[in-house]
Here is the input.
Amino acid sequence: MRPNASMRVARTGLGSVTVPGALAIVILLLALLGPLAAPHDPLAVNLTARFESSSLLHPLGTDHLGRDILSRLIAGAQTTLGAVAAALALVVALGLGVGAVSGMLGGRTDAVLMRLCDVFLTVPTFVLALFLIGAFGTGLVNVIAAIALSHWAWYARIVRGLVLELKTRDYVLAARIAGASPVAVFVEHVLAGVLPPLAALATLDVGHMALHVAGLSFLGLGVQPPTPEWGVMINEARTFFWTRPLLVVWPGLAIAVAVLAFNQLGDALRDRLDPTLVAERGL
Here is the structure.
């Protein structure tokens, strides 16, 4: 769904800035700064300050160990989005590589690689990630690997489709007739047409993968306490849900806002990069 006019807060020569887009930028900045942006040490335990209410010293209060919730949310953004960034880098690299080879070479190579993709696409991504973690073991590194291996096939399929379309263009055919190798043709003439939609897809997937990281950490399979991470915070707070519901609400709200922000940012980026939609708007 494209951002509507009421969500636009500014327009410059560089494009439109939306409320979700601004939120995504803020979340990214907090993730980059991590504990440096936190008002307190997110790991500092103070049992005399357990379950404090919101105050100037602790704007969102403290948890069952007296740790500042706001500081843990900010540090958790770095953990969650850092894991998402690493997983996305692996997904894009695998998807781009397999999709490019499949689309450029075609024939038996294409058939084998696409059947391999079909194997990964037959299983829901979260279920496949759980299976892979069961094989690899728990921990953040294994979670990143599991998420990457459960998502790359979607990207490979999309890249292959783009390559098949682009390699029939006249300028690409001319390069091939001139004797350019498949690698040179892809790098010099096809890659530029593949990267924009791939970037939009990756942005849209940030929220989806953040849910994976938080969900697996909530189940105790990813990030382990006391490391601040949104899923870990929900898991730690569930024991106190009926007496201290805000301990669950704050990290849950952080996840929801991040998913919404990056989904809307991905939609806006897709609209900017899609030639058909650009032509419709007369841009």
